[in-house]
Automatic annotation (TrEMBL):
Transmembrane segments annotated in the record for this chain: 21-40, 46-64, 199-219, 225-245
PANTHER family for the chain: INTEGRAL MEMBRANE PROTEIN-RELATED, PILUS ASSEMBLY PROTEIN
Organism field: Paenibacillus silvae
Annotated membrane topology: Multi-pass membrane protein
Protein name: Type II secretion system protein GspF domain-containing protein
């Protein structure tokens, strides 16, 4: 990877800002502390659970990274449709990439998306005389997304061997579009289940809080002796259920 490409965005990592990291620690630490008080009625237990907030920024970073990569894939699909239309109209490959940037901006004039920036970089590199194959390959290496990598490989091979670029781009955009449509259908299908899982996960905490407020004498055995062990087991089971549900809902296509 060249020095110039090292200065560009690497889509395999995501760096939280200082503000984002602090917010994650403060919000999660407060939440974990409240959970500790709710389950144990002890400040020390709340402080111990609150220490778990140091792992939350890493989890939130992965969530934001996945969102960014998903959005990049979706925008890449739209860019391929624009590129396919430009090539079918008789434009050159270079002009096709240039016009696809304008088409993306027309879809959302106020947006400054990752893909618009990347296609602008492609256009700038071509204006400075760099072959489009090198620029596209660099973008593919930094993105590490299967659809973009496959398109770059097919595009570079077709460009070097003199294949029908219009047909290649058209078919590639159709295949990637179908794949993304399937992903979106799956996301819609599991969206309700995701919401239901969140409600089910929150229900024990709400129920325990309700009992503490309305029947505190009934809950007293839970906060002494074997009650602490029962609370620990119950909390561990809830965490395992959350991780299990999160894994089930993580469907890859």
């Amino acid at each position: 990877m060249t020095q110039s490409s090292q200065m560009l965005t690497d889509y395999t990592v995501y760096m939280l800002t200082t503000r984002q990291r602090l917010m994650c620690i403060i919000v999660s630490g407060s939440l974990f502390f409240c959970v500790g008080l709710l389950f144990y009625h002890h400040l020390l237990a709340g402080a111990v659970l609150a220490a778990g907030c140091i792992w939350v920024p890493g989890f939130w970073r992965n969530v934001l990274l996945e969102r960014r990569r998903t959005t990049l894939s979706l925008h890449f699909k739209q860019a391929l449709y624009a590129l396919s239309s430009a090539l079918a109209a008789g434009k050159s490959v270079e002009n096709g990439f240039k016009e696809s940037v304008e088409d993306l901006r027309m879809l959302n004039p106020e947006a400054d998306t990752d893909l618009i920036r990347e296609f602008t970089i492609l256009r700038t590199r071509m204006e400075y005389g760099q072959p489009i194959e090198e620029a596209l390959l660099d973008f593919s290496d930094r993105a590490q997304i299967e659809d973009i990598t496959n398109f770059a490989d097919v595009f570079i091979t077709c460009k070097r061997t003199g294949g029908d670029l219009v047909e290649v781009v058209r078919r590639t955009s159709a295949v990637i579009g179908e794949k993304l449509d399937i992903q979106q259908d799956i996301m819609v299908a599991v969206a309700q289940k995701r919401f239901e899982s969140k409600v089910m996960f929150a229900a024990p905490f709400i129920f325990l809080l309700f009992l503490n407020l309305t029947a505190s004498h009934f809950m007293e055995p839970l906060y002494s002796g074997m009650g602490y062990l029962i609370s620990t087991v119950a909390l561990a089971v809830l965490v395992c259920c959350y991780l299990w549900i999160h894994r089930i809902m993580d469907i890859k296509v």
